[in-house]
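Two proteins, back to back. First:
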Amino acid sequence: MRHQRAGLHLSRTSAHRKALFSNLVSALFTYERIRTTDAKAKETRRIAERTITWARRVGDVLVKAPEKRTQEESARVVHAVRMARRVVRDRTAVVKLFDEIGPRFLARHGGYTRIVKIGQRPGDAAPMSLLELVPDANATREKPVVDVEAGSEKGAEGKATKKKAAPKAAAAGKSEKAAPKAKAAPASKGRESKPKATKPKAK
């Protein structure tokens, strides 16, 4: 029986499992939408929401300028950042968590993320899901989807986005015409005759 043993093992060691969920939570905070399996999404959601709560609790303090905070408020922020850093090892993701995500959910007590099932993975038919932060009512721009299984960035519809190649300038193409190749000197038939060494005459 697994009494008081919360969390999934996912057939991984504890160190591998902690690193996996740390990377998933960091990707979620960075891109605000990731694509992964159902099992990983459900476990990542549990960890991510607890981490967001640390930033939300000090959201009223983060609104103030650092020089206007009291000593107690500064200590609260430092403690919250240290607790979040226990899960999120990426410094950029932690900065975004406390600068953007925490104040965004200041009036929301829980339920910061949602899971959307998107079918099965073609290779092994594993059930896949989108794990994303609940968007703001004022947000209109769609966030790209990051496929953490394949390591690629996709659009809102799940299709991979490709970078468009810069078009070549027409003027440059016309001006840079292939220069006529210089005609090579005709190769002489046979071996080249070398000058014979002359022997000094005996006196």
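And the second protein:
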Amino acid sequence: MKYPVCRFDLESDILCPNCQEKLDRGEITGFDVEFSKWLIARDKEYPALSDVQIKRSIRLPNRLILILKKKQKDVFLTAEPLVSEITETFGKLMIFEGTPKLRNVVRMLIAPAVEVGVNSLYLPDGFKESIVMLRLEDRDKIPYSKEELREIVSAVISETVIFQYQDERLEKEKETPPDQFDEKMTELSERRFSDN
């Protein structure tokens, strides 16, 4: 297997300057290093996986996400004993391929439902936050809660993603009390016109 960290680094337990830079820039994480060490101790048992490239590994509560090079998921899943050991050790295994894009990841997770729309906000600090709108009638078709979707998708694409059902947004807008300033301005403008 090919790892996000140099094989020599994993075997020597010291990161080379290149891998250390990747770690410092956030391109890889401490868990990438830890999981790669865990895998390297087992990869000789799975010669069929020699060409599989692990781009990233992400640990969430009771879940492990692997991002592999394109068209390698099926090959990885043929190593059933390894997949079972990963699941027992790290939790439910989820695999994505290539460079994960927001809409593709969302569609994969919510199928057969389809998102209504995606709005992106660019925050003053340079971060981007996306809101994915879903139809309320699709709630039973989606195997994950909004919180699980937020956690998984945010981790996979490395940005904050919030999920909302359309009808919930409308309800929230109805529940929001009217703005006092707007009410006062309306009252003043109505009074002005009635005085004339």
